[in-house]
Design a protein that fits this description.
alpha+beta, Immunoglobulin-like, 3 domains, 4-stranded antiparallel β-sheet
């Protein structure tokens, strides 16, 4: 016997989905799908005569897509061609609407003509879909134990649970609760670019009916149908008997008249 509880309380935490990275960071850069990504290339862009961003696909400097930046503007940019939502402002690469194809390994090359030097640095960019709405449901078993389920849409999802503010087991999308658990349980869902939470109120599971009672309820209508069928058969037999009895209500003269008409 499974019972689903209604949701009583909803709390959602929505973080700002604009992401900020820089080319010399040691950890990967995470961008939120369909949101804004800011990547700092260099703080003092005017010191450099030329800059180049190249996405490493085949690890070939002559064929991999490149975007050259000169005097703070993108030039000869086949890396972000036909994408008006991409720009370079004050040494920062700005992608106003991140797409899946923006994931990958990038190399930034800086040219300084005063000493004819070239420096480069790399950056790993990972695009993740942010957490969508969070759904929580609770089911009761016949023994009174509860299981709570949490579901959501997004990439690289991590789950965590709390009961009345206290932490529970992390890492799973469902959790078992002891019989008699009462209070508010929260499911927190997060990835590298977003975080959402939903809280529901849980109460003790109601006691279920004994198995014998359930079986009796299921069998009883069949028994009634059988009795009704037998009664119908008895009624049909009674009708035949009743019809035969009707003939006895005729007078003797009527019987003789009918008998004589038949034998003629």
């Amino acid at each position: 016997m499974m019972l689903i509880f209604g949701l009583m309380l909803l709390l959602q935490t929505a973080a700002c989905l604009d992401q900020f990275c820089k080319f010399n960071q040691s950890v990967p850069c995470y961008g939120a799908l369909r949101h804004k990504l800011n990547v700092l290339m260099v703080r003092e862009a005017r010191k450099y005569d030329d800059m180049k961003i190249q996405k490493r696909i085949n690890y070939n400097k002559t064929t991999d897509p490149v975007c050259r930046v000169k005097n703070g503007r993108m030039r000869n940019c086949d890396l972000y061609s036909n994408r008006t939502e991409v720009a370079v402002i004050n040494g920062t690469l700005i992608i106003n609407r991140v797409i899946r194809a923006d994931s990958g390994n990038y190399t930034l090359s800086l040219y300084h003509c005063s000493n004819c030097s070239e420096t480069s640095t790399d950056l790993q960019v990972n695009v993740e879909a942010p957490i969508d709405s969070v759904e929580v449901s609770i089911s009761c078993s016949s023994s009174g134990a509860m299981r709570v389920f949490c579901s959501s849409e997004g990439d690289q999802i991590l789950y965590s649970w709390t009961l009345n503010g206290g932490p529970l087991m992390d890492g799973n999308s469902s959790i078992d609760l002891d019989e008699g658990t009462d209070g508010n349980i929260s499911c927190s869902v997060k990835n590298h670019v977003s975080h959402r939470q939903k809280t529901v109120n849980v109460k003790q599971c109601p006691e279920s009916l004994p198995a014998a009672d359930v079986e009796y309820v299921e069998i009883q209508p069949q028994k009634k149908r059988k009795e009704r069928k037998e009664k119908e058969e008895e009624v049909q037999y009674g009708e035949v008997t009743f019809t035969l009895n009707l003939s006895s209500t005729y007078t003797r003269s009527q019987e003789e008249c009918i008998y004589s008409q038949v034998h003629r």
